[in-house]
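Trying the structure run again after the queue cleared.
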Amino acid sequence: MSVELTDELRRLEITKGTGVLFVGDGAFQLTEGAITSADCLRTSGLARLVMEAGVATADDWRRAEGGDASRLLEQPRLETLAMLSVFDAAYFLLASPSVPEFRPTPPHWLATVCRITPHVLVHECERRGDPESTPWPAQLVDRAPVVPVRRGRRRRIVLTGGQAEVLAAADARRSVAGIGDYLGRTSYGCLVAVRELTAAGLIEPPVQVMPAPSTTAPPVIEATPPPRRRRVRPTAPVPAPDRWKPVDPDLLVRLRAALEDA
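Done. Tokens:
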């Protein structure tokens, strides 16, 4: 966790600063020292969360950003989603080595429904931590594809609804952050699910591929390729669907049966 960033957040809390604190690939919006919004390129963002949850439409969001947030601010679930979005972005931004830069601005329109003190934010991110024992550290959230195991061991595995959704969205191309954006869920929540699915033997752990001795390039992080690749290629390419259908209860039953028969 960046000491420089946490110190700057605490300074702004004491001085009751109002504006934008830029850091790494994101930013915090503060109103009188409290964090009202946060964005990070490695997370889905509040707009994606509220639209997937049915709290707002794309037009509602555009109007809110244009200055007319009255309809959106009336939605009771907005506060919860706004807080989830802030904690999600902060989990990754607080680890950024970049030097933070603060610029005063008018209060953010979410200030009336979401205010999180830097102390609470830092405490929660410290509580979540980044376990050293996991093969999926936070830095891989947007750097490695999530590859499902093609054939698991013969044992009964009970999945939660969230784990089943993440497993269904793992297509050997999407990263953890990509899965979060696809499902309209937080990147941190998907990261936890991927860690659990990897421990259960349903997701391949990412592997570190070392460069040849003659190169000075840093190690490249990739995912273990799915087994049994020796297959006859189709005569014509088969286009992948732009979007999978939402997971339904029938899928969970079929998935469980498939795991038992594997």
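The chain has ten helices and six strands. Worth checking whether this holds up in the mutant runs.
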